[in-house]
Specification:
The N and C termini lie close together (about 10 Å). The protein has about 210 residues and is mainly α. The chain has helices at about 15-25, 25-35, 60-70, 80-100, 100-125, 130-140, 140-150, 155-175; strands at about 35-40, 55-60, 175-180, 200-205. Helix 5 (about 100-125) runs antiparallel to helix 6 (about 130-140), helix 5 (about 100-125) packs antiparallel against helix 7 (about 140-150) and helix 5 (about 100-125) packs parallel to helix 8. The protein has a two-stranded antiparallel ribbon with strand order 1-2. The chain is globular, with a radius of gyration of 18 Å. The chain folds into 2 domains: about 10-100, no CATH class; about 100-208.
């Protein structure tokens, strides 16, 4: 049994950019294929000429989360990185503009899949609070990605998602003890506590 909190280490901007760019290059085919998750190959930071490439599983929600983080870190990006970010976002916007209904449907499917994962995790929490605390920083990524998906949904779909999310948030609020930011502190400014309240605290229970 794990005894230490899982650590969510913030990915470097160059990694977020690499994943966003790789997904942007094939976003139209990603939407058309209709599978929530897609594996893209990105270079390992520090490697040259494509050496050390590694597969990364991404999705619409994952890309939205990376774009959100990069936008909040824009002042620390180099001019080249800001340009790469703008180009990736433009390609994604072009693809979603061409296939709006397909894109909305795919985002909703992803949101529901992540909602299911959260509910399963919370069910497990009721049986083992120690393990729940250990795994919480990792598992709560689903909630943050749902938040970014919600911002990209059309009004009717966003309202429906908010309704479905209410019961999950009620469960989270009932078990959380408010506290410090649960991910790497260097990115806390990306996630204000008022909006991302679920990233500021841990489930009540025995300290690992």
């Amino acid at each position: 049994m794990a005894s230490r909190l899982s650590t969510v280490i913030a990915t470097a901007p160059e990694t977020d950019l690499a994943v966003a760019a790789a997904m942007a290059a094939q976003f139209e085919s990603y939407i058309l294929k209709g599978e929530v998750y897609r594996t893209v190959v990105v270079p390992t930071p520090g490697d040259r000429k494509g050496a050390g490439e590694r597969p990364v599983q991404s999705s619409g929600g994952d890309v939205l989360a990376r774009l959100h983080k990069l936008a909040a870190q824009s002042e620390s990006l180099s001019p080249e990185q800001r340009q790469a970010l703008a180009e990736a976002k433009a390609r994604i916007d072009k693809a979603t503009g061409r296939l709006p209904s397909h894109y909305q449907t795919l985002l909703l499917r992803e949101a529901r899949a992540r909602l299911n994962s959260l509910n399963w995790f919370l069910d497990d929490c009721s049986e083992n609070r120690r393990e729940c605390r250990v795994q919480y920083p990792f598992e709560i990524r689903n909630r943050q990605r749902i938040a970014e998906i919600g911002k990209a949904l059309e009004a009717g779909s966003a309202d429906a998602l908010t309704t479905q999310l209410a019961s999950v948030d009620q469960r989270l609020q009932g078990m959380l003890t408010r506290g410090e930011f649960v991910w790497e502190a260097t990115v806390a400014h990306v996630y204000p506590s008022e909006e991302y309240w679920y990233l500021y605290g841990l489930p009540a229970g025995p300290v690992p």
